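comment on this one:
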Amino acid sequence: MAGSGVFTEILDGDVYKYYSDGEWKTSGSGKTVPIINPTTRKTHFKVQACTQEEVNKAIDAAKTAQKSWAKTPLWKRAELLHKAAAILKEHKAPIAECLVKEIAKPAKDAVTEVVRSGDLVSYCAEEGVRILGEGKFLVSDSFPGNERTKYCLTSKFTPISFYLYCYHYQWSKMHKGLISCVTGKGSEIGDFLTMHPGVNCISFTGGDTGIAISKKAGMIPLQMELGGKDACIILEDADLDLAAANIIKGGFSYSGQRCTAVKVVLVMESVADTLVEKVKAKVAKLTVGPPEENCDITPVVTESSANFIEGLVTDAKQKGATFCQEYKREGNLIWPLLLDNVRPDMRIAWEEPFGPVLPVIRINSVEEGIHHCNASNFGLQGCVFTRDINKAILISDAMETGSVQINSAPARGPDHFPFQGLRDSGIGSQGITNSINMMTKIKSTVINLPSPSYTMG
């Protein structure tokens, strides 16, 4: 990226600087953190290993900037966000290149992700004006036992700014210090930041780390998406071509490395053979290789992830699962694999591979499928394929998940829809409106009027 000429001002040699108080800085620690390219398994980027004192300064700067931001008219805040979104989309190519090298996201999908982020910023700007500009006027006699002598004006203030591509936010002339990008080692600044008294809200996407954060964070709002074992239930009357297409889309896009990916297929025995054959035919057409070539299946993000996936595959093989393809791995690159006749005693039936390996469990009743879904430690999303809308609604009601898609693969978006999980899948609800509300403080001012008898006496 250093050679691209776009981000050169934020580089110190071959190390990216961190962003704090409106400036790009080099950490006083003199240390760096390597970012490994999943394809080459070699260091591709380096970032600063910031110190706790540098974290303190970034938070202090944000606190100061927030007071100024809170006084900025809503239309002006929206204007700046729209400008940031436009800049983001204008420079989508170099950002997408970073995604390709850092997480092996296929090139075309990386560009789409950047554009989607810009669109998300613009939508947030409009929704923020609508929500934050809405005042409420409450009257005391609307609640039983109260006279009409108390009026309450409620307003929302100091929404916590979100972090998105701060280099481009810098160009949009956001308030100095409002956005920071602090990098470093978890052992040095991870817990320090989580438990910092200056942090008013935490939004995090991850797995075990998120659970650890929730245990250490103080009394602040938490918004966490921590993984899923998203179940796909397929009934006898389902459109099997539609189901197979969505299983491929839901289970193997971005190599299955999505929290909303189809993680287990629960199919009625009577149609299982037909469905598996249709999915196998589509798996055979998936391209495998480097993200730069826009392959369907690209390397998983870390070697430890690849090792974990291989452990699940080995366990399934030892316990008698049917391999629809030969298992193949080169470094972090794992070829797509469909496992049929998976049983509940296999790890792959319950654990999240976060890779291009998908188990199929054959069921003999809808109740069996619902039971498996609800017995999971996760409860993020699920989907149901059937032509009977009544069955679909009943099954959806019975599935203990944050969202259920009918005749479609699970999906994160559209981004203004509520997005939440149960159990180990997280806490709090995402989605633009929900996120803005969570990151907003409510303040009430109560006006006490003289009682009617006093005024008229």
